[in-house]
User: Fold these one by one.
Assistant:
Number 1:
Amino acid sequence: MDDKKTVMIVEDEADAAELFAEMMRVGGFRVLKYFSSGPAIPAIEHEKPDVVILDVMMPDISGLEVLRYMRRQPDLASIPVIVVSAKSMPMDIKIGLDAGASMYLTKPVGYRDLIQAVDKVLQGSDAPQI
């Protein structure tokens, strides 16, 4: 039986998605990748990953809309979501946290920061973090 935690990455930039995926694999996680929000939503519902790493600016449905949708669904509401976005203005961060992000990181994100963020949200820190 595989007891690896599952991280789902929803990121439209292929290079960034693969970089995040490789960081998570090196960190010992099972990784699922989606390049747009549309297919990611049913995958989140089906897979119920342990953590979602979510970009905000997506080609179809905004990452913030995905996040708000998850927070409205009783069976998805408790899944930690780490927003990783190029949108780095204080108002952007506030909007992401208000939408229900467990943590908000700005691009570029290094290995240590991303692994620490995933570990922290898996430990159940309730307060949203920047």
Note: Helices lie at 14-26, 37-47, 63-72, 90-98, 111-122.
Number 2:
Amino acid sequence: MEYFSELGQTGLFIAAFLAATVLPLSSEIVLSALLLSGLSPATLVIVATTGNVLGSLTNYALGYWVSLGVIKKWLRMSEDDFVRAEQRFVKYGIFSLCFSWVPIIGDPLTVMAGILRVRLRWFLLLVTAGKLLRYVVISYLVLNVY
């Protein structure tokens, strides 16, 4: 994570993008380090949100265009796991995309949105709202608690 912090806003963008995919990265650590170094909180929140949403959009595109077999293998999902994930998504609806930032469930949610052909404008609106709110809260806590 230190490497990404040394790259400043570019590093934050890359870390946020990669963290939204199945790679185990934490953009929050990079954001926190940059906030504490005195960079503009508003700019950092925008950069992190943009990178993270674009990473989720990559997941959406994979769900939209890649075969289910490849997706199940990529996400290490059995047929039963896949059916349960699909049922949960359908049960809670597109507003579950507001929680695409949550570890473990966020990546499959965004892939499932692509598989189920959720309208792109709704996907972008809900995913952006959830991720933006998360980064705003993290920034507030870092700057006012530490």
Note: The chain has one domain: 2-145.
